[in-house]
Amino acid sequence: MKRYDVIVVGGGPGGLAAAASAVEAGGIVLLIESLDTLGGNASHSTGYLVMVGTALQRQHQVSDSVADFMADGERQIRLELENGPMIWDRELTELYARESAATYDELTAMGVRFSRLLAKPSQHRNDRMHALEDPAQLGAAYAARLETLGVEVLYNTDVTRLITTEGRATGVAFETRGAGGSPRTGSAGAQRGVILATGGYQGSYELRRRHQKAEEINGYLSGVRSCRGMGHVLGAAMGGDLINMDYIQPMIVIPSLLAEDAIAVNRAGERFHDETGKYGDRVKGLAAQPGGTGHYIIDAATFRTKSALVATMPEPPIEAPTLSALAEAIDCDPATLQTTVKTWNGFLAGGAQTDPVTGRTILPKGRRPLRDAPFYALRMVRATTFTWGGFAVTRDMQVVDVMGDPVDGLFAVGDTTGGINVISGMGGTHIASALVQGRLAGRAAVAGPSALPHLTAPAQSRPFEAKTLPKMVLFDLNTPEPDR
Ligand SMILES: Cc1cc2nc3c(=O)[nH]c(=O)nc-3n(C[C@H](O)[C@H](O)[C@H](O)COP(=O)(O)OP(=O)(O)OC[C@H]3O[C@@H](n4cnc5c(N)ncnc54)[C@H](O)[C@@H]3O)c2cc1C
């Protein structure tokens, strides 16, 4: 069995950053990826990254701080609490915000380019959503960097088991799919640690069946299909403490870059929500429409320039030569649809920054009206894009077990962790936090982790006394115990 210092399982942003930082810390690294390319879901994403205190923000005279970010995070958590209690890892969230500017520097040094900062005032009081010029750049830039750094990468390979020695993760067993033939099995040793970076579990029927609401288990899946929660399963087999597993963000499928040029209408032909607003609000907005149906409307100019994004939509576009004909095709009121489009175009022409109908602030680049025939309708489809639950970890990203002890030699990053993604509704936090966590994990795996667990584990549970528990305890396990 070939031996490495660190084995990284999964080549999304978390795994890529982990592999790079582990080598830079002096380790010999193997990265194992299920697919034949690197980048994971980030390559299929819209590429919005929330980072705090970056050079791009300074360039645009945006003053931002970790404290401001945390205040926005807290506001988001209070909203999420309406969906039920959860565990928010405030400490890890703050660490992400603090380290994110260094991640920005690292990305730009690798040649990754950001095109703009987006204003999202309902989620972020300061402009901190950094738009990647091309989301595919991330995987490509890391692939080149890992090659330069001498990281060995095994593609088309699924890690199926962890190898353990006296309670320590010391390697992995895997299956490689060759061209045509049956899978080849193998194993590799990791002297310093295994980093689980397998993303979420949205591609696993069994995990969805256990954790997702009944009506959504068979729902449309957007993104790569290889995120089947194997990291969750492998870590659970070592006693890892999985938190927030029932939180799965339902979304309306549309790449944000396409949503910028679209409006959505219901059967009456009216707009009913901010098409670029919070994911949860979009889902609620659609559910409240007659028949729970709606369509995005775009024109020929957008169809032409964003055809690759249109192709990622769950259903093919419906085309019609006029707005009236389109209304007929999607069974909505033609006169109202015409008025809705006219109102939208009038708003764009006016130059105001906030749409008076829905409060929308993300406006098309160049404020292009819906004018060029033919017109297209894209049915709004609810889907699962990523999951929120995963392991409780230390600040070194070491997995913590259900007894509250760090698991020797085992680390987790990105969507395989569970304490940060509950702020997902802010938008743009998944990729950036995965990158930050990867850097931390790679370094700690090589140097040896020293951080202690900071969340309470099931085995350390406090006795339940409903009357004395302040509300905060439901979601903030960093809060000191109340005086009794
Ligand atoms: C359409 C879409 C748009 C999105 N837009 C945004 C956005 O704008 N901003 C944002 O922050 N987030 C966005 N996301 C979410 C974001 O892409 C993910 O949350 C993020 O990529 C998670 O990073 P990760 O490294 O944890 O895992 P992933 O990127 O999910 O990568 C995990 C990798 O692990 C591999 N893997 C899984 N199991 C195994 C195994 N057993 N063995 C080997 N390899 C394995 C997978 O093939 C995959 O490549 C979007 C997602 C989608 C689908």
UniProtKB/TrEMBL annotation:
Its cofactor is FAD. Keywords: FAD, Flavoprotein, Oxidoreductase. Signal peptide: none annotated. InterPro entries: FAD-dep_OxRdtase_2_FAD-bd, FAD-oxidoreductase_2, FAD/NAD-bd_sf, Succ_DH/fumarate_Rdtase_cat_sf. One of its GO terms (molecular function) is oxidoreductase activity. The lineage of its organism: Bacteria, Pseudomonadati, Pseudomonadota, Alphaproteobacteria, Rhodobacterales. This is Fumarate reductase flavoprotein subunit. The keyword Oxidoreductase applies. Residues 5-429 form the FAD-dependent oxidoreductase 2 FAD-binding domain.
